[in-house]
Structures are given as structure tokens and as C-alpha cells.
């Protein structure tokens, strides 16, 4: 049985097995602690009965007015625990937190080459809102899709009307 629980500082010493995937963005220790300090409600772990970290989600709330939204900064599941619905469970958790914060939508960035993740996000109701050119620092040729899912506050679904042209990272609001 999987347990969802808040991420703790001690988890920083136990989650390397999840971060080894080449498609997982990894950050410095200060980045994780910054998120943990500022948006602890958005930082959750999926844990196995033996205490092993199976996956995690890290996010935040940001924006103003109709751009107020939840953002998935990182989502990853250990290769040993994929295809069990853990990613969907973690995303659903983050969406519920965003609903409580009265966000208009949830967004995320995903490599355009990560077809498996894109398909999963689409199955969960996310749409490709726009393409962000050369988004990933490690690979200037790698673009990202900015994917979004409208929440109940966005009654007219204005947040998910796709842009017709790509943008550069510095143009992201």
C-alpha cells in the first residue's frame, strides 16, 4: 500500500533513487529546501510500506488575477514503481491543493521529447498551451511544452486556450 505524506528535510537524503532518471530535472539542495519552506503543502512523497520513496511531486502557487495558478515544478516516480498510477495520484493531490487555493489552473513544463509523460498528462486532462523554445539549460535544442489544466474557478476555461505561436523562456509570465 502506498502512503502519500508531506515531504520532509530527511527525505532529501533518501530520494536519490527517484532522481536518477535522465528525464527528471534535478536541482541543488537549496532549491528543494526553498520549496519546502515556501510551499510545503505542494511537496508530497509517495512512500512504500518499507519506507522507500516511490516518487514525489513538488510545486507552488504563483501568478496574479486570472493567472493565479498551481505549478508542478517536479514530478517523478522511481522506475521500479512506474505504471501503477502513482504520478496520477500525486498530480490529483496537487490539483486539490490548487483548488483550495482558488487557482484558475495548474500548469507544468515537459520536454517535447518525453512522449510518455505528454500522453499521461493528456489522459489526465492537460492540454499543450504553448511551446517554449530552448527551455532546458542542459540542451539548448530541447523545447518544452507548457501544459495546462483548467480548474473549477476558470468557468470559461480561458486559461487553456492554446497560444498559436511559440515563446522564449524570458517571455513566460
From TrEMBL:
Record Pfam families: Acetyltransf_1 (PF00583)
Enzyme class: transferase
Catalyses which reaction(s): N-terminal L-methionyl-L-aspartyl-[protein] + acetyl-CoA = N-terminal N(alpha)-acetyl-L-methionyl-L-aspartyl-[protein] + CoA + H(+); N-terminal L-methionyl-L-glutamyl-[protein] + acetyl-CoA = N-terminal N(alpha)-acetyl-L-methionyl-L-glutamyl-[protein] + CoA + H(+); N-terminal L-methionyl-L-glutaminyl-[protein] + acetyl-CoA = N-terminal N(alpha)-acetyl-L-methionyl-L-glutaminyl-[protein] + CoA + H(+); N-terminal L-methionyl-L-asparaginyl-[protein] + acetyl-CoA = N-terminal N(alpha)-acetyl-L-methionyl-L-asparaginyl-[protein] + CoA + H(+)
Alphabetized PROSITE patterns for the sequence: GNAT (PS51186)
Residue ranges the record marks as coiled coil: none
EC number(s) on file: 2.3.1.254
GO molecular function, one term: protein N-terminal-methionine acetyltransferase activity
GO cellular component: NatB complex; nucleus
The keyword Glycoprotein is annotated on this UniProt entry: no
Cell location: Cytoplasm; Nucleus
Keyword annotations from UniProtKB, A to Z: Acyltransferase, Cytoplasm, Nucleus, Transferase
SUPFAM superfamilies linked: Acyl-CoA N-acyltransferases (Nat)
Source domain of life: Eukaryota
Subunit structure: Component of the N-terminal acetyltransferase B (NatB) complex which is composed of NAA20 and NAA25.
Family that this chain belongs to: Belongs to the acetyltransferase family. ARD1 subfamily.
Function: Catalytic subunit of the NatB complex which catalyzes acetylation of the N-terminal methionine residues of peptides beginning with Met-Asp, Met-Glu, Met-Asn and Met-Gln. Proteins with cell cycle functions are overrepresented in the pool of NatB substrates. Required for maintaining the structure and function of actomyosin fibers and for proper cellular migration.
Name assigned to this protein: N-alpha-acetyltransferase 20
Protein source organism: Apis mellifera (Honeybee)
